[in-house]
Amino acid sequence: MVLQKKEIRKLSVKQSSKQLAVEILPDKAMFDFYPNGGKIIITIKNDKKTTNFSNCNSF
């Protein structure tokens, strides 16, 4: 999955309580997930705030 967002300092992605590998670039972040692997929880931290997403429905 690709998240188009600037200024990401830290991105944490968990699926079924397993931490997934994340690559952060200047204007986006990328990670691989398992299509049938269960609930995905994304936590984005930038300079201003921390944002949590669950099941990726908030994008």
Write the topology of this structure.
Blueprint: E1 2-4, E2 10-15, E3 18-19, E4 22-24, E5 28-31, E6 40-45, E7 50-54
Antiparallel strand pairs: 1-5, 2-3, 2-6, 4-5, 6-7
Description of the structure:
- This protein has 59 residues and is an all-beta fold.
- The protein has one domain (2-54).
- The protein has a four-stranded antiparallel sheet, with no helix packed on it. A three-stranded antiparallel sheet has the order 1-5-4, with no helix packed on it.
- The mean pLDDT is 84.
- It is globular and about 30 Å long.
- The protein has strands spanning 2-4, 10-15, 18-19, 22-24, 28-31, 40-45, 50-54.
How many structural domains are formed by the residues? 1
Uncertain segments are none
Largest sheet: 4 strands, antiparallel
Helix/strand order, N-terminal first: EEEEEEE
H/I helix tally:
0
- Give a count of the beta strands, DSSP E runs of length 2 or more: 7
Mean pLDDT: 84
What level of helicity do the residues show?
A: under 10%
* Percentage of β-strand residues: over 45%
Keywords for this structure?
59 residues, mainly beta, 3-stranded antiparallel β-sheet, 49% strand
Short description:
Helices cover 0% and strands 49% of the residues. The strands form two sheets. It has a four-stranded antiparallel beta sheet, with no helix packed on it. It has a three-stranded antiparallel beta sheet with strand order 1-5-4, with no helix packed on it. The chain contains no helices and seven strands.
